[in-house]
Amino acid sequence: MNAESTVVVGGGTSGAAIAGRLAESGQSVVLIEAGPDFGPPDSGRWPARLLDPSLMPIDLHSWNYANDGQHGRTGMLMQRARVIGGCSSHNGCAVVWGHRSDYDGWVALGNPGWGADDVTPFFRTANERFRVHVPDRSEVTPFHQAVLDSAPAAGLPSISDFSDLEIEHGLGIGPVNISGSTRWNASFAYVDPVRDLANFRIESQTVANRVLFEQGRVSGVEVMGPDGVRTIKAGRVVLACGAYGTPLLLQRSGIGDPSELEAAGIDVAHSLPGVGKNLQDHPAVAVKYSGTPELTSLLDEFVANGGMPREEGTIALASSRRCEGPFDLHLYPIAHRNGPGDWDIFIGAAVMASRSSGLVRVLGSDPESAPLIEHRYLTDPEGYDLDGLVDGVRQARELAAQQPLAALIGRETFPGESIESDEALRALIPTISEHDYHPTSTCKMGRTDDPSAVVDASGRVFGIEGLVIGDASIMPNVPKANTNLPALMVAEKIAADLLR
Predict the structure, then answer these.
(1) What are the tens digits of pLDDT across the range 137-155?
(2) CB-based contacts of 494: which residues, under 8 Å, 6+ apart?
(3) What's the CA gap between 430 and 379, in Å, rounded?
(4) Of 440, 357, 352, 432, residue with least CA distance to 392
């Protein structure tokens, strides 16, 4: 590898895809991953929990970020994977694209080439590489089968496939990135096909301390790995560390808001005030149920007969009373298995068109030290997000009241039927709301005259030649979707731009 190599920092969903795409085209690529590289799925080195799509092992190989704000459930961890494949190695395998309006909206914010028609081919390619398919009804748990049967009575028509930017309302079985009985992560999809090429190298267990640049042009990356601190020279650097990690790396490199960098004891190398701002996610709340002996028996029988007890099986697209688009809520029924005869049952509700935003900020130059993460959930001045969750609870309850679901799930245990009025829900929800594992937008793309923008529509960082960002941090706002596939779409498009 030489100084003209492309260094991709971050081997998660987006980084694995960009590195794989560039390497298969013949370019010289070094992929830096802070966590372990366990190799192909049949290497024998992968922890079983990371391969098992019925689990969400978010505690395993995680950065263990935490939300420092006072909004939402106390002590919320904002888990991001620290392993090859990134969050696609430990998420719920839900594949949702969002809606046409999400991406046409990005164009309206000054990002040509990101409209729905532009990005659809990249979504399709990502689906193919991720081996995405829609499970048959018999493959989802009896709980989710009851959800499917109950949805029409709750005003939720059947959706056949969420891999479509036109769908606006209803409930159906969610597409998944599962191959056989294996969570098919981005490393399997993009890294394994190129890992033996001479022009490709993986530096695992290696943390990027800072990006190096000279006279306005990137020159390499300073890393800390098994052999200590060293420099990897590069002709181009692509950052794909995610909505938390990418702005933190920029800030450690002296790129960001000067006042924040100075407060952290970091010399200002390049003023770019938008770095770390505009943090977005989908605030969520769960309505929990006791379950019944009949449901427990059905679920245990399903597992005993070889069924995969995926806790996420169905998804609903719904609208709050203040909805201004095609939909603004997700409802996601969950049956979480703790063990034989022990199941947690709930229906989650999340605001997909959330308006609250927060920030990510370094507190020092050490990449292993905890940053400041303030999501500031439910703080939008219009109160849209809080009203959305109030309506989400009501619609979750409406779904739960229909047969045959109502007979199986038992009574509501939380928040509890006594928490009924809008006023009571508004008072309670800010203390119990959670995140939806979908952080985005901390290095947003936009016009050169937008002081909050960090990159242009090709992911190029303003003012630093050869420095590109290709992950969910560049999304101008969070799409109405689980963000794993949109992040993969972003990577596919950025890689295609780099190969032009």
Answers:
(1) 999 999 999 999 999 999 9
(2) 14, 18, 238, 458, 459, 468, 469, 470
(3) 10
(4) 352
For residue range 277-307, list pLDDT tens digits in order: 999 999 999 999 999 999 999 999 999 999 9
**Rounded CA separation 130/88 (Å):** 10
Element (H, E) at 302: helix 293-304
SS3 374: strand
Amino acid at 181: S
- Note the maximum CA span of the chain: 69
DSSP state of 30: E
- Residue 67: the pLDDT is 86
How large is the average pLDDT for residues 87-110? 96
Is 122:181 a contact under the CB 8 Å cutoff? no
Range 480-487 average pLDDT: 97
376 near 122, Cβ under 8 Å?
no
Q: Is 339 helix (H, G, I), strand (E, B) or coil?
A: strand
For residue 279, give the H/E element and its range.
strand 277-279
For residue range 346-380, what is the model confidence (pLDDT) as tens digits? Answer: 999 999 999 999 999 999 999 999 999 999 999 99
**Computed from CA positions of residues 134, 178, 201, 37, in that sequence, does the dihedral angle turn out positive or negative?**
positive
| DSSP string of 88-116, one letter each residue | GGTS--B-----HHHHHHHHHTT-TT-SH
pLDDT single digits (tens) 206-241: 999 999 999 999 999 999 999 999 999 999 999 999
Torsion angle in degrees (nearest 10) through CA of 119, 178, 141, 436: -50
Pair 102, 143: CB distance under 8 Å: no
Report the C-alpha gap between 206 and 11 in whole angstroms.
11
Between CA 28 and CA 49 the distance in angstroms is 33
Residue 441's closest CA among 279, 283, 282?
Answer: 279
Using a 10 angstrom Cβ sphere, with 0-12 exposed, 13-18 middle and 19 or more buried, the burial of residue 442 is buried
- Predicted confidence at residue 76, as pLDDT, reads 84
Residue 246 parent element (H or E):
helix 242-252
- How many other C-beta atoms lie within 10 A of the C-beta of residue 411? 12
For 336-348, write each residue's pLDDT tens digit. Answer: 999 899 999 999 9
| C-alpha pair distances (Å), 194 with each of 22, 93, 217 | 10, 23, 28
**Structural contact between residues 22 and 495, judged by C-beta atoms closer than 8 angstroms:** yes
Q: How far apart are CA 499 and CA 470, in angstroms?
A: 13
Rounded-to-integer distance, Cα 199 and Cα 21, Å: 12
Q: How many CB atoms lie within 10 A of CB 458?
A: 18
Q: Residue 149: enclosing H or E segment and its boundaries?
A: helix 142-150
Place of tokens 């290497």: 43
Preceding amide of 404 cis, omega within 30: yes
Distance CA(179)–CA(184), nearest Å, equals 6
Q: What are the structure tokens assigned to 196, written together?
A: 């033996």
